[in-house]
Amino acid sequence: MVPVLRQGGAVAATSHRLSAMKYLAAIVVVVCCMMQSRAAVLPEDEAEIMYHLYDGGGVEVDGPALLVRKGLFDTMSVSVGYYRDSISGASPDVILGGSKYSDSRDELSAGIEYLYGNSLMNLGFASSDESDYEADTISLGVSHEVFGGLTTVSMGYVSGSDTVSRSDNASFGDDNLTEADIDRNQYQLGLSQVLTPTLIVSVNYEAITDDGFLNNPYRSVILQGGLVAERYPGTRTSQALALQAKKHWLNRSASHFGYRFFTDTWEIQAHTIDLGYTSYVGSRLLADIYYRFYDQSAASFYSNNFEQELNFMARDKELSSYTSNTLGVKFTYRLFEESKYGLHGGDLGFIYEYMKYDYDDYSGVTDISNFNASPYSFDASTLQLYFSVRY
Amino acid sequence: MRLIRLCVVSILFMLLGACGHFPLEPWVAPYEREYLADEIMSFSRDPLANKYRQHVYDTREGARGAGIASGGGCGCN
Question: Does B46 touch chain A (CB under 8 A)?
Answer without folding.
Answer: yes
